[in-house]
Every structure is written in structure tokens, then in C-alpha cells.
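On clarity, I found the account of how folds are encoded harder to follow than it need be. For illustration, here is how one protein appears when written out as sequence plus C-alpha cells.
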Amino acid sequence: MNDAETINQIIAFADKCHGEQMRRYQPDRYIVHPTRVMEICRQYTSELPQLAAAILHDVLEDTPVTMEELAEFLQTVMSEPAAAKTIQLVLELTDVYVKEDYPDWNRRKRKDKEAARLGKTSAAARTIKYADIIDNAPEITEKDPDFAQRLLPEYKALLRKMTKGNAALYERATTLINQCLKELRSKNPDSADGIS
């Protein structure tokens, strides 16, 4: 099986995992987002485990699929070392400090801890996270400016902690977040004090 066929099988698997989930602001199946994240990554790398993890980056966090089920599937479409690397990346990208497990922590504390954790992940995982931010930020800025006022500063703080991924993609993500923040300020100058 060539890499393109493998990628197509992984997209189909992730689509099945996400089931009926839809994008929040568009009438699209959820798989549209991880596929776009993978396409952004593909502009900078052809490494199969990284592209596979980009597609699968929300599966463990947002679906009932277990790590064991994910590993079992991956071993049917890629070599064991490639499957292991993909799983490692997906685990690095899966939020640990979630409300369900830390109910007494407020969002800021959870996001600060998550940023510190992500700041210690591999360069490949950071690169995927940059692509995730690039795909999410403009849509949220346009469709949900109230939430964007909270999310964009979190993204900016996260990028400050995660500097060691692909340098060109990091620069792209940082520039985009600054543009989105500027757009928010222009739409609502009264709230600019709350946006860093």
C-alpha cells in the first residue's frame, strides 16, 4: 500500500471515529478539519506518521475510540514503527488537563498546564498543533468573536511555549494569530483591553 492509499484509509477511519460530529460553525462533517490540518502539514513534511497523526489528532480526545483500538487499526495500514510513532504523536496532542478530570480547576489553569505540557512535546507534535491553530483561528474569529476573545490569547500563549516545531509553520501560525487579534480589535475596540 502506498502512502496516498494509507492516508485515504486513515481519513476514512477517522471519519468513522468522529461519526456524526459536525464542525461547530459550518455544516461540515468533523473530518474536514483534521484533513485540512494534515494538508497544512503536508506543505512542510511528507513523513507518514506526522500526516497520519494530523488526521487522528482529535480521535482519542473527542471520540470513544481507545488507544488500543487506534493501534490495532494503524497496524493494519502501516508498519509497526510508523504506527507506534503515529500513536505517540496523537497522545502528545491529546489534552490531559480536561474539565472532566480536573473539575476544580478553572479554564485558565487547565489551559496554562496544557500549554506547559505541549511545550515539552516533540517537534513533530508541535508542528501539527501549529496547523491545528491555523485551521481553527480564522473560522472562530469570524463566526464566534466572543469566544475568540478568550481563545486567541490562549493560542498566543501556547505558541510562546511551543517554539521548536517547523520554523516556517510556526511563523505562519504566529502571524495568523496576530492578524486575528487585530481583526477582533477592529470589530470591537471596546474589548481590546481584554485581548493581549
The chain has two domains: 1-94, 96-196. Residues 99 and 105 are 7 Å apart (CA to CA).
